[in-house]
UniProtKB/TrEMBL annotation:
PANTHER family: BROAD-SPECIFICITY PHOSPHATASE YOR283W-RELATED (PTHR48100). SMART domains: PGAM. GO terms for molecular function: phosphatase activity. SUPFAM superfamilies: Phosphoglycerate mutase-like. This is Phosphohistidine phosphatase SixA.
């Protein structure tokens, strides 16, 4: 059975917080997160697990996603904030094989780098290789097991964005 991995970049966040991890969503970001959740609820039939960065903006993005998608389980994981593509992949490798759909709510440039690294061949993967805007979900179909997921082990099947062109905020 094919598995689904959804990588989400948080919605638009404010500038100027003393600590980066404490940046909140702007009003625009709150609307983006709500719209993204509603759109994904129409496209995804189920969500087993959501893994969320501890950064405030990611937590605030996840709230309406949880409300719209009703994941069976969700958790916070420090490596989603502090790690890069390899650390995210290390977490994915630990997911139980009975889980068929996983969403990670995190940050750029890791969202686009991991998606491109897992696919790299499709037109959609090439399109996102330079980054994705805020409030964007990259949906990948995973061909094999979570434990063995590596380069070429997934295909970007869709990109859903409710963000602006502020690629690195």
């Amino acid at each position: 059975m094919a598995k689904r991995l959804i990588l989400v970049r948080h919605a638009k966040a404010e500038y100027g917080a003393i600590q980066d991890a404490e940046r909140s969503l702007t009003k625009t970001g709150q609307r983006q997160a709500l719209q993204l959740g509603l759109e994904l609820a129409q496209r995804l039939d189920r969500l087993d697990l959501m893994i969320i960065s501890p950064a405030k903006r990611a937590q605030q993005t996840a709230e309406p996603l949880i409300g719209s998608l009703l994941p069976r389980s969700y958790c916070q994981e420090d490596a989603i904030y502090s790690g890069g593509p390899q650390q995210w992949l290390d977490l994915i490798h630990l997911i139980d094989e009975s889980v068929t759909s996983v969403m990670i709510v995190g940050h750029e440039p890791t969202v686009s780098a991991l998606a491109y690294g897992l696919d790299g061949e499709s037109a959609l993967a090439r399109q996102i290789s330079f980054g994705v805007s805020t409030a964007t979900a990259v949906i990948l179909e995973v061909v094999g097991s979570w434990k063995e997921l590596a380069s070429g082990g997934a295909i970007v099947t869709d990109v859903v964005s409710r963000g602006a062109s502020d690629m690195w905020i």
